[in-house]
């Protein structure tokens, strides 16, 4: 996708109903997840230890099982905790046993840069639904695809588009290339992780991502999609004026 094509994407009148991409809720607040479950636009969920710690989760397994007891028909990804490959495998098989819709998040490497793809291959061959996470390069996408190709169970490759953008790099061309790399694998879906703005949903859809994870803060902005920009301008001006009056500023 070149610059001119990206301009066309961002200049189009946005329409949520035209999206093909699946929106997954991203977080670890049980009540919020259950509330989102009632929204037909939300097709699945992801979480991770950082989000769980942020939301005050104390018992990892209890939290996961309570969520899975309510949300039974949409995929939910839970991450292994260990840094040791053998223990990661034990944890992965345990998580997979919690429910048919439980996907197991396996990081692309451990903290010592040891590839976890041999483990992913074994899990894939045994029919475990894997979500390869922490991916930021095309080489990693290729490696994940090769490992997941050893099985046929529904699987995900999570590429952290937001973190790529945080480094000053445009994630859109890479996500487009990742989509092409994984296209031959019908059972593997590309997920745009860590979006930074609502626009990322439309960008991810345009380049062929299957899924995007969206936090509660971004989900709150969905009603803004397609909003009249002249009206938005007026509301912005009104906000500045109201705040100046409330603050009692004078010149």
Overview of this structure, please?
The protein has twelve helices and eight strands. The longest helix is centred in the C-terminal third of the chain and has 19 residues, at 229-247. The protein has one domain (17-222): TIM Barrel (Alpha-Beta Barrel), CATH 3.20.20. The protein is α/β, with parallel strands linked by helices and 251 residues long. The protein starts with a helix and ends with a helix.
Give a quick set of tags describing it.
251 residues, alpha/beta, TIM Barrel, 8-stranded parallel barrel, 8 strands, 46% helix, 16% strand
Oligomer: single chain
CATH topology: TIM Barrel
Secondary structure category: alpha/beta
Enumerate the spans where pLDDT stays under 50 for 5 or more consecutive residues.
none
Shape annotation: globular
What is the helix tally?
12
Classified in CATH, the superfamily is Aldolase class I
Main sheet makeup:
8 strands, parallel, barrel
Q: Which percent range describes the beta-strand content?
A: 15-25%
The name of the CATH architecture is Alpha-Beta Barrel
* Mean pLDDT score: 94
Supply the CATH class: Alpha Beta
Rg: 20 Å
Written as H for each helix and E for each strand, in order along the chain, the element string is HEHEHHEHEHEHEHHEHEHH
Proportion of residues in helical segments? 40-55%
| Tally of separate domains | 1
Quote the distance from N terminus to C terminus. Answer: 50 Å
Map the helices and strands.
Elements: H1 3-11, E1 22-26, H2 30-37, E2 42-46, H3 49-54, H4 60-70, E3 76-79, H5 85-96, E4 102-107, H6 117-125, E5 130-135, H7 138-148, E6 155-159, H8 161-166, H9 171-182, E7 188-192, H10 199-207, E8 211-214, H11 216-219, H12 229-247
Parallel strand pairs: 1-2, 1-8, 2-3, 3-4, 4-5, 5-6, 6-7, 7-8
């Amino acid at each position: 996708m070149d610059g001119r094509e990206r301009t066309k994407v961002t200049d189009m009148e946005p329409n949520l109903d035209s999206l093909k991409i699946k929106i997954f809720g991203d977080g670890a607040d049980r009540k919020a997840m259950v509330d989102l479950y009632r929204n037909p636009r939300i097709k699945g969920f992801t979480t991770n230890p950082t989000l769980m710690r942020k939301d005050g989760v104390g018992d990892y397994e209890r939290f996961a099982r309570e969520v899975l007891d309510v949300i039974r028909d949409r995929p939910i990804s839970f991450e292994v905790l260990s840094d040791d490959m053998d223990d990661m495998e034990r944890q992965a098989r345990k998580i997979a046993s919690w429910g048919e819709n439980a996907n197991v998040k396996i990081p692309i490497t451990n903290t010592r840069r040891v590839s976890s793809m041999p483990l992913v291959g074994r899990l894939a061959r045994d029919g475990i639904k894997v979500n390869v996470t922490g991916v930021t390069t095309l080489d990693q996408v290729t490696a994940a695809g090769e490992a997941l190709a050893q099985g046929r169970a529904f699987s995900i490759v999570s590429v952290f588009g937001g973190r790529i953008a945080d480094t000053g790099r445009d994630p859109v061309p890479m996500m487009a290339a990742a989509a092409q790399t994984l296209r031959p694998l019908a059972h593997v879906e590309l997920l745009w992780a860590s979006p930074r703005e609502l626009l990322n949903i439309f960008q991810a859809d345009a380049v062929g991502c299957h899924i995007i994870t969206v936090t509660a803060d971004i989900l709150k902005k969905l009603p803004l999609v397609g909003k009249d920009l002249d009206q938005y301008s007026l509301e912005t001006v009104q906000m500045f004026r109201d705040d100046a009056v409330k603050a009692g500023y004078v010149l």
